[in-house]
Specification:
The protein is an all-alpha fold. Helices cover about 65% and strands about 5% of the residues. Pfam families: Voltage_CLC (PF00654).
């Protein structure tokens, strides 16, 4: 009789069999998961939303860095003479309280770190070889960028807490009246001198950011250098923090797009996907600057891409959400506008808002013209003695003179100093008198033109919003005075005027509507916003097009130029060309692309050097493949077709080169490349600039 505690032999055998079965099935499951991971290809459309979210994180960080740089400069400007007072024990206690109450959002690290580490682990598990190498590289880069964003976020939150105590960017309306007169003149002058010295050797960084991004996307280049983005952020922080009249959004849009351009090119995105990623960076910058994610997404699609296709929605929306979440930690979570409940008093009030739209369109047009005129004047392009004299002076001197003029205008209206956003809430609440509103509208317009036109750095988006708020408030004061029972208070017109000016300057009515609808939080203002923004945008667009110099646009130039003028004569490769010989020809070709014939001798398509990436390491594939196996079927262009049609086909096929069919007895065949078209347009622009007949000035607000 077995009296021990050991289980009977039959039960032991069953447990051993169950354990063996579990181990075998677990091994099969692990091998299955490893095999599935190795089969992952992650096509670019599936990676693009993730890349958009990562770009959004860094756009939010850029907004935080930029805001804190402005806070540092503003703190230096206002507190240079009070340094001893800022170090008193009570101020240090306030600093500790600010750090304790900062929005650290530790859940970001709790979510982001495991996801990034999981992506790194997955990249390590995937076997190398073929397209899997690209997957591993993309996963690794996106994971490292996520960890980098988290490592920047928390120090930036601490810096924001410090700036909340020692900086003065949050209460300019109360601090400016106590500035000594000499500091009002000296600070913008020294700031302009510093910015001019910083940008003296980098003329390509001049302007306010948005037009450069729009042109990069429109031209198809999609290249915004990252070093220029950082330089523009620093220069704009100096300009705004020292009292120059400029906006924050332009440099952040440029910085976000510059980062997106670098990431997209490293990830190997196509031209179209790269343009979407640039829009992600720009839209996330707007979302972070204004704490308005919907407006940022609409801005990216309406202003940057000019399209509302389904494939662009997910990356842009994720980028805007990520940028806003980050900015709410490193900036103020409160909305830009204090929530005020206004409503449409009567149906006849729509006519008043229509008149406001006309006024906003006229003011925005005057703003653009004055900005271009001041720029032309400081560059020596006007007659007389002063303009040529200024044109001969170096950029630091010109920017310092512009800053000095801006400092003089601060004596007449404090809204000139910096971005002036504190006064928007006062106008929205109806707390500013009529004369102050009119004076602020005119002087802010002139001061911004002087600051940026003389060589300062900053955006025009936010100054236009302030100008529109002042103009709308003044218009609302008059309308309410004459029709008190049929119209709302002046604050409603200030909010709607702000949207109208933004819509007119950018020629994006949806952006103006959604931004002010989101910032105000008032459902009742959507109808006035729709009326004012649409009319203002149409008026400014009509006046700009009517007064623009009659020069040949890029579209006209492309439509008037035949493909044969730019095509490269390249003999087509026979279909049976071995892979080894094909590789040698591709590597020595100028464009890295060759036209390929089919088995019947007809033009079939092209083969690109990038297509060798999957097979060039595998020597066993060389005897098995020929040119027809590697070629991609593409439509062939006729030599007498125009360049506009060629670019349209390239966009449809998402390629950078197309074959050109030969015409027997008339012309040989060859290739037309996007790079050749780009060089052609650049040469035409350079020729137009040399004669002074250029269609777009350096600080054009829209395209």
């Amino acid at each position: 009789m077995n009296t021990s505690d050991e289980p009977p032999p039959a039960e032991t055998q069953r447990m051993a069999a169950l354990t063996l079965w579990a181990r075998q099935n677990l091994s099969r499951l692990i091998y299955f998961l490893l095999g599935a991971s190795n089969r992952i290809r992650l096509p670019t459309p599936s990676v693009l939303p993730i890349a958009g979210a990562v770009v959004g994180l860094y756009s939010g960080l850029a907004a935080g860095i930029f805001s804190n740089l402005i806070g540092v400069m503003s703190g230096i400007t206002f507190s240079a003479a009070e340094l001893a007072a800022t170090l008193k024990p009570q101020r240090l206690r306030t600093l500790m309280e600010s750090l304790a109450s900062a929005r650290w959002h530790l859940e970001y690290a709790m979510v982001g770190v495991p996801l990034a580490l999981g992506a790194l682990l997955l990249a390590r598990v995937i076997d190398p070889g073929g397209p899997r190498d690209e997957v591993k590289r993309r996963l690794r880069l996106l994971a490292l960028l996520t960890l980098g964003a988290l490592s920047l976020y928390y120090p930036l939150v601490g810096l924001a807490a410090v700036n909340a105590v020692f900086g003065h960017a949050h209460n300019l309306a109360s601090a400016i009246p106590h500035l000594p007169w000499w500091l009002m003149l000296l600070a913008p002058t020294v700031g302009g001198l510093a910015v001019g010295r910083l940008l003296r050797d980098r003329p390509e960084t001049h302007g306010h950011g948005l037009p450069e991004v729009v042109r990069a996307v429109k031209s198809g280049a999609n290249v915004v250098p990252a070093d220029r983005g950082l330089l523009k952020l620093i220069a704009s922080a100096i300009t705004i923090g020292s009292g120059g009249s400029a906006g924050r959004e332009g440099p952040i849009v440029y910085g976000g797009a510059a980062f997106a351009s670098s990431v997209g090119r490293v990830l190997g995105f196509s031209r179209k996907e790269l343009s979407i990623l640039l829009a992600c960076g720009a839209g996330a910058g707007i979302s972070a600057s204004f704490n308005a994610p919907i407006a940022g997404a609409v801005f990216a699609m309406e202003i940057i891409l000019r399209e509302f296709e389904l494939r662009v929605f997910s990356p842009i929306i994720l980028a805007s959400v990520a940028g806003t979440l980050v900015s709410r930690g490193v900036l103020d979570e409160a909305p830009l506008l204090n929530r005020v409940n206004y409503e449409l008093v009567s149906g006849s009030e729509v006519f008043a808002y229509a008149a406001l739209g006309i006024g906003c369109g006229l003011i925005s047009f005057a703003f653009v013209k004055l900005l271009h005129g001041v720029e032309h004047f400081f560059h020596g392009g006007m007659g007389g003695k002063l303009s040529p004299w200024l044109g001969r002076k170096p950029l630091p001197v010109r920017a310092a003179l512009g800053g000095l003029c801006t400092g003089v205008l601060v004596f007449l209206s404090p809204t000139v100093w910096g971005s002036g956003n504190d006064y928007i809430n006062l106008a929205a609440a109806g707390q500013l008198p009529f004369f102050f509103l009119v004076t602020a509208c005119v002087l802010k317009l002139v001061a911004t033109a002087l600051t940026i036109g003389s060589g300062g750095s900053g955006g025009t988006f936010f100054p236009a919003a302030l100008i529109g708020a002042m103009a709308g408030g003044a218009f609302g004061t008059l309308v309410h005075y004459f029709f008190p029972h049929a119209t709302g208070p002046s604050g409603a017109y200030a909010i709607v005027g702000m949207g109208g000016a933004v819509a007119a300057l950018t020629r994006g009515p949806l952006t103006g509507m959604m931004m002010l609808y989101e910032l105000s939080g008032s459902h009742e203002l959507i109808l006035p916003l729709m009326v004012t923004c649409t009319i203002a945008s149409a008026v400014c667009h009509f006046l700009t097009e009517r007064t623009a110099p009659k020069v040949q646009s890029d579209e006209d130039l492309l439509a008037a130029t035949h493909v044969r003028a730019l095509m490269t004569e390249v003999p087509a490769v026979p279909a049976g060309t071995p892979l080894r010989a094909l590789t040698d020809q591709l590597l020595t070709s100028e464009a890295g692309t060759l036209p390929v014939l089919d088995t019947e001798g007809n033009l079939y398509g092209t083969v690109q050097v990038e297509q060798l990436r999957e097979v060039w390491r595998d020597e066993s594939m060389y005897p098995l493949l020929v040119a027809s196996d590697m070629a991609r079927k593409l439509p062939a262009l006729a030599p007498d077709s125009d360049l506009a049609h060629a670019l349209q086909v390239m966009d449809q096929e998402d390629v950078d080169a197309l074959p050109v069919a030969p015409v027997l007895g008339l012309s040989p065949g060859g290739l037309i490349t996007r790079a050749a078209v780009r060089r052609f347009l650049f040469a035409q622009h350079a020729r137009a600039h040399s004669t002074g007949n250029y269609p777009v000035t350096p600080s054009e607000a829209a395209h």
